[in-house]
UniProtKB/TrEMBL annotation:
Species the sequence originates in: Acidaminobacter hydrogenoformans DSM 2784
Coiled coil: 48-115
A Pfam family recorded for this sequence: UPF0122
Gene3D superfamilies, A to Z: Winged helix-like DNA-binding domain superfamily/Winged helix DNA-binding domain
Keywords on record: Coiled coil
Top-level division of the source organism's lineage: Bacteria
Protein family according to the UniProt entry: Belongs to the UPF0122 family.
Protein name per the record: UPF0122 protein SAMN03080599_00466
């Protein structure tokens, strides 16, 4: 449940502007403000079922946008690659402070340069 809500929130961040104003309002309350269906229904003066149905319809639309555009997946992939680069640079920093062999550091730096170039493409 928690992972599903996080995924929905992430997709809302990417594609939320493509939803109706009502869908945006309900998803913002649900994903960002972490309100329950009951709290949202009270706030908006609609039934809990209407809140649930709106979220399900919006979720389906967001999934369709992601299937076609893939922005969230690309963002996640780039984020992982950047984290890997940061880890590599930290590793080099430690090795430099430990006076590692220059050839080993050169190989690691070359690897990080290739990864960074791939991200930029």
């Amino acid at each position: 449940m928690f992972d599903k809500k996080i995924k929905l929130g992430t997709m809302f961040e990417f594609y939320g502007q493509l939803l109706t104003e009502k869908q945006q309002e309900i998803l913002e309350d649900y994903c960002i403000l972490d309100l329950s269906f009951g709290e949202i229904s009270e706030e908006l003066g609609i039934s809990r079922q209407a809140v649930y149905d709106t979220i399900k319809r919006a979720e389906k639309q967001l999934d369709q946008y992601e299937d076609k555009l893939g922005m969230a997946a690309r963002f996640e992939q780039r984020e992982k690659a950047i984290r890997h680069l940061v880890d590599g640079m930290r590793e080099i920093d430690v090795k430099i402070s430990e006076e590692a062999e220059a050839s080993e550091l050169h190989e690691r730096i070359s690897e990080l340069i290739r990864e960074a170039s791939d991200i930029l493409e």
